[in-house]
Amino acid sequence: MLGRTMLNGPLLTVHETAEKLKVKESTIRSWIKDKKLRAIKFGREWRITSNDLEAFLNQNANL
Predict the structure, then answer these.
(1) Does residue 25 contact residue 16 with C-beta atoms inside 8 Å?
(2) What is the pLDDT of residues 24-39, one digit of tens each?
(3) Rounded to 5 degrees, what angle do the CA atoms 42, 43, 47 make?
(4) Dihedral of the alpha carbons of 41, 33, 6, 21, in degrees to the nearest 10
(5) What is the number of alpha carbons within 13 Å of residue 50 lying toward its C-beta?
(6) For the chain, what is the HEC assignment?
(7) How many other C-beta atoms lie within 10 A of the C-beta of residue 28?
(8) 8-11: long-range contacts, CB 8 A cutoff, minimum separation 24
(9) What is the pLDDT of residue 49?
(10) What is the mean pLDDT of residues 29-58?
(11) Counting beta carbons within 10 angstroms of the beta carbon of residue 24, is it exposed (0 to 12), middle (13 to 18) or buried (19 or more)?
(12) Bridge pairing between strands 45-48 and 12-13
């Protein structure tokens, strides 16, 4: 079970997430590996929910 993950909206690929944040795909994969960014693995590919991306951005925002 995915726990508190809410699947509202599309799942983003590593490529789409990297484009959105203007970083390299390897950076996104590193954040996933380091458990900084939550992701769901489908086969060999990772997917990121919009909610998890928003939570990641909120946790890492300079206020």
Answers:
(1) no
(2) 999 999 999 999 999 9
(3) 30
(4) -110
(5) 4
(6) CCCCCCCCCCCEEHHHHHHHHCCCHHHHHHHHHCCCCCCEEECCEEEECHHHHHHHHHHCCCC
(7) 26
(8) 8/49, 8/50, 8/51, 9/49, 9/50, 10/50, 11/40, 11/47, 11/48, 11/49
(9) 96
(10) 96
(11) exposed
(12) antiparallel
Tokens read off for 48: 């990121």
**Residue with the two structure tokens 């489908």:** 42
pLDDT of amino acid 4: 55
User: What are the residue ranges spanned by the domains of the chain?
Assistant: 12-59
- Residue positions counted in the chain: 63
